[in-house]
Amino acid sequence: MSILAAVLLAIAGLVCAPVAWGTSALSAMQVRLLALFGTALALTACILALNAKESAPAWLAAPAAVLAAGGLGAALTVAALSATRIVGRATDAARPEEAEASAQAAGPAEASGGAPAGDPPADPGSALLRGGALIGVFERIAISATLLAGWPEGLAVVLAVKGLGRFPELKQAHGQATSERFILGTLVSVLAAAACAGIGILIRG
User: Fold this and answer.
1) pLDDT per residue as tens digits for the range 156-204
2) Cβ density class 58-84: b for 16+ within 10 Å, e for less
3) For residue 200, what are the contacts with CB-CB under 8 A and spacing of at least 6?
């Protein structure tokens, strides 16, 4: 049962992987459905791990947890950001160029092969913090890997590096939209990575 749990956890990451690489091609509803399906798989894997009498080998459990952290974590993070609609409402007056970029990100995406018209894009505020999706993937991989390796202090190191790297951009931003997006995205991303690592530890025994 533990091996099946590891396989399900890996599938959860693979199913949600498109969110990490192509947010603009997905609608908000598609991302939420992927996040829901991936979460269901991860919870099933957790239940199987709790009821398993044997442990899965580390070479299977650890990669499955890291894969789930990268893929499922991306879906959960984008779903949370799309639900809150942090798109730059506080920066429209102070930063016209950011407002225009946000409007373009939130506009119809069918011209570029994205989400169909009438369906809101998965991440309308992505222009506020460029590169956030890719940074988040590596952040979750690093966090889950450090937790699986038994080095929880690594979580503080990862968050410190991310915070220092984003500090100039957050300092220059006017209004609360950028800071809110950074805080919410980071919290959801970290919690998702920690949860996937925890399931991996349960599977590994």
Assistant:
1) 999 999 888 877 777 676 566 777 888 888 999 999 999 999 999 999 9
2) eebbbbbbbbbbbbbbbbbbbbbbbee
3) 6, 9, 61, 62, 64, 65, 66, 68, 144, 148
